[in-house]
Amino acid sequence: MMHTLRNGRGMRVAIDAHDASVRAWWAPDRYGRLADVLGAVPPAARAPTGWQCAPPDDGHLLLRLTQDGLSVRLAYRLDEDGSLHLDCVATAETASRFALAAPRFNLQGRGAAVADHVLRLAADRYWPGGRTGEAPLDVAGSAFDFRQPAPLASRLAWPALAHLTGFRHDFYWTSSGQLREAARVADPASGRVLRFSSTQESCHLYSDTRCFSLLAQDVQLLPGQVMRFKLAYRLGVQDIDAFDISEPVSMMSNK
After folding, report:
1. Is 63 strand, coil or helix?
2. Of 107, 51, 123, whose CA–CA distance to 233 is shortest?
């Protein structure tokens, strides 16, 4: 069953109660034109299904899951400033692991490319896709250093990444446990800007030609453990000149 959250700016966010995923997000561009900025959401490898929820109430939606000794409470809230908050509390009777399905964004709207989407990511370490049993690497001097904003395509053009079709990497920062902005993505064509905030210390960056996502880390619980984390995705608009882009953007790649 699909539930829709709305705010006074005309935003609409559709949430699928089956797997607690965000399926659509209609948001205005710099000219006030609405578009759905989400692509198809593939199921997360460890995303549980069978959530129970009540109808949304004043921009809030509460979902609950009880499954195989795992109990999860997930609250969504859409604010007037364009922020979609996720507040998750999980407990387990046995060793458990689960993940939330990450929304996949295209800030220009479905069907466009994301090559010119400009990413700033406050991470000083990264973990290459497919590597196991090793410590994260320093981003300094590499194509993975997004501490200064850069278009996704310009980094994928680096010789070390030329064989990749997109990013499939984990990024790490020092976390205080408080909700803080970890990433910001801007689309020069529409003026839309996405801000991603988290109480966690890492995220997984996924991108292909048509979408990108910033995925919260998997939750692993020991018997009797209680874990809580918060995420926020905030959509707004911004003059791209104010974004301090460190590398050139080619508007043609979005055509």
Report:
1. strand
2. 107
